[in-house]
Specification:
heterotrimer, A mainly alpha, B alpha+beta, C alpha+beta, A: mainly alpha, 3 helical TM bundles of succinate and fumarate reductases, 78% helix, globular, B: alpha+beta, Flavocytochrome C3, Chain A, domain 1, Methane Monooxygenase Hydroxylase, Chain G, domain 1, five-stranded parallel sheet, five-stranded antiparallel sheet, 37% helix
């Protein structure tokens, strides 16, 4: 397993880990938002979907542990790369005039920290239920409605989804580059794809929060 | 001093093969016991150092730049010649040899030139194997173009950056040896003197440019690949750091300096725009394929170029050389530009410039085609001058570019000092009085990859150098001399900067020993240079200390050597009472202004021996014979 | 033109530096940026002050020696232009110009605006070559290379090793430099034999030198005087990934 250690020790190895876990998260949030939008169909539909997900403990915990491990790896790689970068320029510029680099690229680190905080809260909120006012292990629909009825929580979720949008905008585009995919034929598509995902996925989640806030979902 | 060229016997085609066989070899297991010092990391130095390392010698390589990759070979644009005959247009080793001897105006050594042509094909093989991305045809094979007045297409190129790509190839080979431990690289380290022990070159004294530390390095042979001396003109196409110091220090230690007056002036450079000018930028000669050179017909005509009707323009190259026209060889094109400017017909603010006009080519081929061919050059021109050459004709003027003269070497590339070998532009050997386009890269790499790795074993196997260390009195003395000189420069505390002296020297040299020379002018220069030198040593201001990174001090040492060397150059120019190649003496021209060679009296290499400060150098002659290329007058009419 | 310069002055690597302000007058717009500094230095020498140290050599944009960050941009505001080819006509009368060295841990300051970029040489020494010794090369035309491939290899091979990519990168990463060489040699058939080993060793060396990691900002490409494409970084990533997955312990030198 020497090679794995050597691979992860390198800056590129860490980036690849971030790209692969990022890809996993992207797939996850796409599935997550698609399923959750069932909230607009009917309470039964959402609860049935939730029950289906919990159908096999092995699969459920397999997915949960994979995702948790990915979050840990993604965060650890990001943290160590940030340290490497800080060390790489001990004396900073009086001024550094950015020429390229989107706004989303520049906010990856703080946006990521915000998302990490959000994930912890989100798990305590809807999975463990410890920060939820009236948590039920079976009635997901009611959990959603009562959960988002607290204005501060709704605002926090919306802000977090904005952060997700920004994170995806750079992350999805960037992960292709990190995995070695860069070709003039697909480069434009890559940007469009990332922008679409970054727009649609958080929009779907926000729609659920707003649905509760505006009383469409009750 | 004897200038024995040690040319092998036998027919010219077999000399090199025979010589390689005759050379004594160093046993593979003994190679690591020999150490070689290579000064300079350009094409010649890097390729030599890498090849020595591959052979198993212990190599120390030095350059004054911060990385060996920055040597000035990197700036060569055009290409590299090789007698591959891929174009099936009648090229051959003999033709490349013939063209080079003739292009050099019959002032080079036949045997060396033949060897150069012979190994030229191997260079291309070697560079391609290193991954050098030469231009290719759609079929995937190497592309060629014709260059510099040659009638065959034998020039290999990588866009306009051939020198860069070849140097990076040699540099990568060098870095490979560095990583394997066979070469130790010392960047930002300048050679300031040569150490000679028992008549053999055994080491160099260097200054670490960051710390200022003076340190000696010893070895069994010393190889100088330190480039040319065109910066004696102050303004040239050379890099700012190019200097004559290593060569001149070797000369002071007994190496004959050959043909210093042979300097090449490149016709297509961007003209000087003001006193602050620090360098002249070359525009590739390929521009003359489509551009037409002209000036106003009458002097003092300051109208904008577009307002001059055809009838009032003088396309002087087309007029004087109808068969070659705008493609006339470098020296002819340069001199013609000077002539029209001397007549007061020059253009631009300073009046030292001629037009290179693409209007006709754009009409004929369309702007698109011109952009494809020269887009990057046009951009560069616009960046520097702020003028758009698609709409306004370019202004160009000749500038010092390359120096054919250099330290004298024999067939083994060894100077008149045992063990001191000289490669590339730093030696004198292959280009005679004029270098053809795309031949400098060829020579640098031929010397470094294919000649010196063979000939050095002949030296090392027979030299039997005695073991020494840095406590040897000769080493101590050389170090003390270097330290003393630095101290002296720093202690003058005068009023003028080093640059101001360099600029003055450049003016003297350009005026009196530039494109055209005459006895009176050269005598004037020989009077002015010692005066300037005197003033330099009394009034130069070099601030700071020696034990630090001190660019003024580096420059001061180099300018001091240029001040000495300039005198040698003028002495040589004055003695050579003929016109040949890059050396044009106004007294020696035909009725219609062409160079007039004097084969009867001057078919020799002039090797100058240093005889001490204040003493005139002593001339030694190596007669040149032409058994394979009959002596003829160049004609480009 | 009259200008105000704020120039980083630092005597050597061991002590800290600071900005010094110099008013400059009578600058000709046709001067190059470095010629402007020459004029400033002449003035300093005349006043018995130590001239500003800066690296420069060819002054025609190819040697890669110049290493100035001008108003926060490596090589200054002109696209695809090194500082030596930047001309003063691109500035306005009365401008204040901030001049700093290229800043990175792997580029320690030597003096003032001069930095030590030997780390780049060591990255090349780690594997940026084709291991072919002199004399062992086959006939050049025995190996056809599609023109399009050769052209792309040339796009990458144009790198002048100036370090502007590192200087511009918010992470001080050397991925574009390393990627350019990996792309050049990875595209041509001559480079295939050592392709895996090369990328592993060069990346190890790059990391060991203390450069930062790449976060795909793209600042390096914008700053690059030779406009090396970001594709070089993607290829470096891809080659590294492939090599790491396929290499065996016993292969690693």
């Amino acid at each position: 397993m020497q090679w794995i250690r050597r691979f992860y020790a390198s800056t590129i190895g860490k980036k690849v880990v971030m790209a692969v876990t990022g890809l996993l998260f992207t797939g996850f949030v796409v599935g997550h938002v698609s399923g959750n939008l069932l909230v607009y169909k009917s309470p039964q539909a959402l609860n049935a979907y939730a029950a289906f997900l919990k159908g096999s403990a092995v699969v459920l915990w397999g997915v949960r542990l994979t995702l948790l491990a990915s979050v840990a790896l993604h965060a650890h790689a990001a943290y160590s790369l940030t340290l490497v970068s800080r060390r790489a320029r001990p004396e900073s510029y009086d001024q550094l005039d950015r020429q390229a680099g989107t706004w989303s690229a520049r906010t990856m680190r703080w946006g990521g920290v915000l998302l990490l905080v959000f994930i912890v809260y989100h798990l305590l909120h809807f999975t463990v239920g410890s920060v939820h006012p009236s948590f039920s292990h079976t009635d997901v629909y009611t959990n959603v409605v009562t959960g988002f009825s607290v204005p501060a929580v709704a605002v926090f979720y919306i802000v977090a989804m904005l952060a997700l949008a920004i994170h995806l905008h750079h992350g999805v585009w960037s992960l292709f580059q990190t995995l070695g995919i860069n070709h003039p034929h697909t480069n434009r598509l890559r940007r469009v794809f990332a922008t679409l995902l970054a727009g649609l996925v958080p929009l779907g989640f926000v729609a659920i929060v707003l649905g509760v806030v505006l009383g469409w979902v009750h | 001093m004897q200038l024995d060229a040690k040319i092998p016997s036998g027919p010219i085609e077999q000399k090199w093969t025979k010589h390689k066989f005759d050379l004594k070899l160093v046993n593979p297991s003994n190679k690591r016991k020999h150490s070689i010092l290579v000064v300079g990391s350009g094409l010649a130095g890097a390729s030599a150092a890498a090849s020595f390392g591959e052979l198993g010698y212990q190599v120390d390589c030095f350059c004054f730049q911060d990385s060996p990759r920055r040597a000035h070979s990197i700036a060569a644009q055009g290409g590299i010649n090789a007698a591959k005959n891929y174009q099936n247009d009648g090229d051959s080793i003999f033709r490349l040899f013939y063209d080079t001897v003739k292009g050099g105006d019959f002032r080079s050594r036949e045997a060396n030139v033949y060897r150069l042509a012979e190994v030229s094909a191997n260079i291309i093989d070697q560079c391609v194997a290193q991954g050098v991305p030469f231009a290719r045809e759609y079929g995937g094979l190497l592309s060629n173009r014709s260059f510099g007045g040659a009638q065959v297409s034998r020039t290999f190129y990588a866009r306009g950056q051939t020198g860069q790509q070849l140097l990076l190839g040699a540099y990568s080979a060098l870095e490979r040896q560095i990583s394997m431990g066979s070469v130790r690289m010392f960047p930002r380290t300048e050679m300031l003197d040569l150490i000679i022990i028992e008549g053999q070159a055994r080491g160099i004294v260097t200054r670490n440019l960051i710390s200022g530390e003076i340190r000696s390095f010893l070895g069994d042979a010393v190889v100088l690949a330190t480039g040319g001396y065109a910066n004696v003109f102050h303004l040239s196409t050379n890099a700012q750091g190019c200097n004559v110091t290593a060569s001149y220090r070797a000369h002071r230690n007994g190496a004959a300096f050959a043909n210093p007056c042979y300097t090449q002036i490149h016709p297509t450079c961007i003209p000087v725009s003001g006193d602050y000018q620090s360098k002249l930028t070359l525009m590739s000669e390929s521009l003359r394929n489509d551009g037409r050179v002209w000036v106003p017909r009458v002097q003092g005509d300051r109208r904008p170029p577009a307002n001059l009707p055809q009838a009032e323009r003088d396309y002087y190259l087309e007029r004087k050389y109808p068969s070659f026209g705008n493609l006339a060889p470098r020296d002819i094109a340069s001199r013609s530009a000077k002539e029209v400017c001397d007549e007061g017909r020059g253009v631009g603010e300073t009046g030292r410039g001629v037009y290179l006009d693409f209007a006709d080519a754009i009409d004929r081929l369309g702007e698109h085609t011109i952009r494809e061919r020269y887009g990057n050059l046009f951009e560069m021109y616009e960046r520097i001058t702020g003028e758009n050459p698609y709409h306004l004709p370019m202004r160009i003027y000749p500038a010092a570019h390359y120096t054919m003269g250099g330290l004298w070497v024999d067939y083994n590339l060894m100077s008149t000092i045992d063990g001191l070998h000289v490669l590339g532009e730093a030696n004198f050997s292959d280009h005679g009085a004029n270098r053809l386009g795309a031949s400098a890269l060829m020579q640098g790499l031929a010397d470094g990859y294919f000649v010196i790795p063979n000939t050095i074993s002949g030296y090392l196997a027979t030299a039997h150098p005695t073991p020494i260390d840095t406590s040897h009195p000769a080493v101590r003395a050389a170090e003390a001399g270097v330290a003393e000189r630095i101290k002296r420069l720093l202690s003058i505390g005068g009023s003028r900067s080093v640059d101001s002296f360099h600029r003055d020297l450049g003016r003297i040299m350009w005026e009196h020993c530039g494109m055209a020379r005459n006895a009176a002018g050269l005598r004037t220069a020989l009077q002015l240079i010692p005066e300037l030198r005197e003033e330099f040593w009394n009034d130069v201001r070099v601030l700071g200390v020696g034990e630090s990174f001190n660019q003024s001090m580096e420059k001061a040492g180099r300018v001091a050597d240029f001040l000495d060397f300039a005198e040698l150059m003028c002495t040589d120019a004055l003695h050579r009472e003929e016109s040949c190649g890059g050396h044009f003496r106004e007294e020696h021209q035909t009725e219609d202004g062409e160079a007039k060679r004097n084969d009867h009296d001057f078919a020799y290499v002039a090797g100058w021996e240093y005889r001490g400060e204040g003493k005139a150098p002593l001339l030694h002659k190596e007669p040149l014979t032409f058994d394979n290329v009959p002596l003829a007058t160049r004609s480009y009419k | 033109m009259n200008l105000t310069l704020r120039v980083w002055r630092q005597e050597h690597a061991q002590i800290s530096g600071a900005f010094v302000t110099y008013p400059v007058s009578d600058i000709n717009p046709d001067m190059s940026f470095l010629e402007m500094l020459d004029v400033v230095n002449e003035g300093l020498i005349a006043r018995q002050e130590t001239p500003i140290a800066f690296d420069h050599d060819c002054r025609e944009g190819i040697c890669g020696a110049c290493s100035l960050t001008i108003n926060g941009i490596p090589h200054g505001p002109n696209r695809a232009t090194t500082a030596c080819q930047l001309h003063m006509r691109f500035f306005a009368d009365g401008d204040t110009i901030v001049i700093e060295p290229f800043r990175a841990k792997a580029f320690p300051v030597v003096r003032d605006l001069v930095v030590d970029r030997a780390s780049f040489d060591r990255i090349i020494a780690a594997g940026g070559y084709v291991g072919v010794s002199t004399g062992s090369a086959p006939e050049a035309n025995a190996l056809p290379i599609a023109k399009a491939i050769a052209d792309r290899a040339m796009d990458a091979a144009q790198c002048i090793g100036c370090g502007a990519c590192v200087a511009a990168c918010p992470n001080a990463s050397a991925m574009l430099f390393t990627g350019a060489k990996v792309m050049h040699l990875g595209l041509v058939p001559q480079g295939q034999a050592e392709r895996s080993d090369r990328v592993l060793r060069m990346v190890d060396q790059m990391d060991a030198e203390g450069f930062g990691g790449c976060t795909n900002y793209g600042e390096c490409h914008e700053a690059c005087p030779k406009e090396i494409p970001l594709e070089a970084i993607a290829r470096l990533n891809g080659d590294y990934l492939r090599a790491a997955l396929s290499s065996r312990e016993e292969d690693a030198a």
